[in-house]
Design brief:
Elements lengths: L1 H4 L3 H8 L9 H14 L5 H8 L4 E6 L9 H13 L3 E6 L4 H13 L4 E11 L11 E7 L7 E2 L3 H14 L5 E6 L4 H16 L9 E4 L1 H6 L14 E4 L14
Parallel strand pairs: 1-2, 1-3, 3-4, 4-5, 6-7, 6-8
Helix pairs in contact: 7-8
Length: 252
């Protein structure tokens, strides 16, 4: 390529790798770049990344979120924002395998990504892998006990309140609540939102309308639970991570 462009190999390297401090006149630079385009040569991104300490790439590591239908908007949002600022998103899915996760994180660090998005398929408290502390990391749908690690998580209280307000808006006053028993943020936040929305509407909280079940058992039962009633028609609102399409039940 150097011969085709009529310059030295060193000059080609300086231009393609964008070496700082090397003065090359505009005509020569354009000739080298045009020759590289014609020959199909590309700048050495890894070499330039090591020199500039930037790779214009961001790693996206998830347990199962990349293969979960309901998480599509999280991935889409990350891609859209990354595209606005030029970096490419390198997505890796661990399937919940710790050893695979270790290898994938090691690969991203070897490629000198500028940062990592560490995503969970449901909102929970996670232990940030130690290697990620060497690079800017943001947790998605997860948080750490360490407050120095930034995270983007759902508003569980607001989510619970919003669902109940929707039922209240349709005139329902006897609203059941099916909660998860797992010790996760949703289990604690959504009931709070449920009670807040009832209080706003002047509806007295009735503990008999609240039941708790494991996610697997609730799923096996199709999401249907018997909530005590006094013959009055009521709705049951399922305020946990949905196993179905997440839509509210139709009015009966």
């Amino acid at each position: 390529m150097a011969a085709a462009a009529g310059v030295s190999v060193t000059t080609v390297s300086h231009i393609l790798d964008e070496v700082e401090g090397k003065r090359v006149n505009t005509e020569t630079r354009q000739r080298v770049l045009e020759t590289a385009r014609q020959l199909g040569d590309a700048p050495n991104g890894l070499a330039r990344g090591r020199r500039l300490k930037r790779s214009s790439t961001i790693g996206f590591v998830s347990d199962q979120i990349a293969t979960t239908l309901h998480a599509g908007r999280i991935i889409l949002g990350a891609q859209e924002v990354a595209a606005k600022h030029d970096p490419l998103l390198l997505m890796l899915n661990t399937g919940g395998d710790p050893e695979l996760e270790r290898k994938e994180i090691e690969l991203l660090l070897q490629r000198q990504v500028d940062g990592v998005l560490y995503a969970s398929m449901y909102h929970r408290v996670v232990e940030v892998p130690e290697p990620l502390r060497s690079v800017p990391t943001v947790l998605l749908d997860a948080r750490a006990d360490d407050p120095s690690v930034p995270s983007a998580v759902p508003g569980e209280v607001q989510g619970g309140a919003t669902a109940v307000r929707e039922l209240l808006r349709h005139g329902h006053r006897r609203i059941g609540f099916i909660n998860n028993v797992d010790d996760i943020p949703a289990t604690h936040g959504r009931p709070e939102g449920y009670r807040q929305a009832l209080a706003e509407a002047g509806v007295t909280f009735d503990p008999r309308l609240v039941v708790a079940e494991t996610a697997s058992a609730a799923s096996a039962a199709g999401g249907a639970h018997a909530v005590p009633a006094s013959g009055t028609t009521h709705r049951v609102v399922l305020l946990r991570r949905p196993d179905g399409d997440g839509r509210l039940p139709r009015r009966r």
